[in-house]
Amino acid sequence: AEAAMACLAVDPAILLIVVGVLTFLIAFCGCVGSLRENICLLQVFSVCLTVVFLLQLAAGVLGFVFSDKARGKVSEIINGAIVHYRDDLDLQNLIDFGQKEFSCCGGVSYKDWSQNMYFNCTATNPSRERCSVPFSCCLRDAGQAVINTMCGHGMQARGYLEASAFIHTNGCIDKLVNWTHSNLFLLGGIAVGLALPQVRALTVRRV
Length: 207
What we know:
Blueprint: H1 2-9, H2 12-36, H3 39-65, H4 67-83, H5 89-102, H6 160-163, H7 172-182, H8 184-206
Pfam families: Tetraspanin
GO molecular function: enzyme binding
Protein name: Tetraspanin
């Protein structure tokens, strides 16, 4: 049960479904309320929009003020995803996509994959993938037509310098933090762009 709940907490498909349902309900209240001039639905729409806006604002402020704790939470989420890598196909594809895009492997380093029961590097692990890392950690060759899914075999047993010739040894947490800092103005612009229509809707509703 604990494994199932942990998997559900990071399952992107379920997250998208929940966000989609909430978005539909809020939009439904606003649309039908406007067409039917239903004060109750319009009030629900206004309250929901206000709550969403305040949550976004609070998340942004808290993320900036408690950046260290936010980093720790991201580390916790990534480590949990590593543990349940083989339990859910959607989660597996999401991790592989992230590691390919950010050219990283694991949370802090590639040896974090030892937290997974299949990639665990202990001598008692009977898995064929013992001491390995996923193929998404491997260095990509532009001229390679077929992906070698076994390229990460036994990489955890090698040192950083030796493994760096075959895989990305840096973790995804630092890569993600660096990407966020380098795209801070872009992310801020997107946040403002998402907030302006909400503020406009709230202003029009009150007028």
